[in-house]
Specification:
This protein is of the alpha/beta class. The protein has 13 helices and twelve strands. β1 and β2 form a beta hairpin.
């Protein structure tokens, strides 16, 4: 096959088709008509001598050849995007760019306040569009529709770039008048009522149960290894709400220590180490390979890394 005779736009179409597994959605993303996309799929099938997408009871399903081609095509397109990026430096002080960041509530409490302080000082025209884990999918990140994801992850697509921002231990926040302070043991911890705060992974879903230890996360998994279980009175997805509930006399809030530290100057609460061992959690920053060489993106990533280093001290 002579590569000079191949319409390389077909690779763009193939990339989107294999991601969406739907001709209509692929056409909408590329801004072309459905007949045009169907015609492109026919040309792709001729080019690779393979049906690529086959209709099954689950919808359009990629063939083995298509799955083999997908990472190769993605790498070719990523390299092409890098090749055409402008070489001009990013002028942060003069930029009015909008960066879209998916941030967990934990990240909003710990990282974003200091990041925004730096941005106002060094790049006042830059704006942030902060989204929650339920607002976006890994597909959105892969396409570069979301600039950054800052969260804690059990698994990630191998194609994503990532950097470790910090590790965090856990602390317990409770009212300064809570009698448990005078006898701080595992038994007294378990005898009180507790506030659970969301693990905030992408696609966690809705509805929680104190019996679903796997979904409850680090604190309850650590207790499970001790054959212990706490009584959860409140399930919340918001760290600020959990911290405020820690002011109530009969509640204990067990959260990552950097978040707990935001209450350090509040005389109404006390912060103690948990009376049992909880594995540390890890915060990561993740982005699409399509944005790896973007000058503005590189600048923002470096600022976030610098701010994170200050917070983690």
């Amino acid at each position: 096959m002579n590569i000079a005779r191949v319409d390389l736009n077909l690779l763009v179409y193939l990339d989107v088709l294999l991601r969406e597994c739907n001709v209509t959605r692929a056409a909408e993303e590329l801004g072309i008509s459905q007949p045009a996309m169907s015609n492109s799929l026919r040309r792709l099938r001729d080019l690779f001598d393979d049906p690529l997408l086959v209709r099954t009871s689950d919808g359009m399903t990629p063939t083995d050849r298509a799955l083999e081609l997908q990472p190769l095509v993605r790498n070719v397109l990523a390299a092409a995007e890098i090749a055409v990026l402008p070489k001009t430096l990013f002028d942060a002080a003069a930029s009015d760019r909008i960066f879209r960041i998916m941030a967990s509530d934990y990240t909003e409490v710990t990282l974003l306040p200091q990041l925004l302080t730096r941005l106002r000082r060094e790049a006042p025209g830059i704006r942030l569009d902060i989204m929650t884990p339920s607002d976006v999918s890994f597909h959105d990140v892969e396409r570069g529709k979301v600039d950054l994801v800052i969260n804690r992850f059990d698994t990630l697509p191998q194609s994503f770039h990532q950097v470790h921002l910090w590790d965090d231990s856990f602390s317990c926040v409770m009212s300064a008048s809570n009698p448990v302070i005078k006898n701080w043991t595992l038994d007294s911890y378990l005898s009180h009522k507790h506030v659970w705060v969301s693990k905030t992974g992408m696609g966690v879903g809705v509805g929680m149960s104190s019996d679903d230890v796997q979904r409850l996360g680090w604190v309850d998994e650590a207790l499970g290894k001790l054959d212990a279980k706490r009584e959860i009175t409140v399930f919340t997805r918001h760290y600020q709400a959990a911290l405020l509930l820690g002011e109530q006399d009969d509640l204990i809030v067990t959260i990552p220590s950097i978040a707990a530290r935001t209450m350090a100057n509040n005389p109404r609460v006390v912060i103690l180490d948990p009376p049992f061992e909880i594995p540390r959690m890890r915060l990561k920053m993740v982005w699409s390979p399509l944005l790896q060489r973007d000058p503005g993106h590189k600048w923002l990533r470096q600022m976030i890394k610098d701010v994170s280093s200050e917070i983690a001290r």
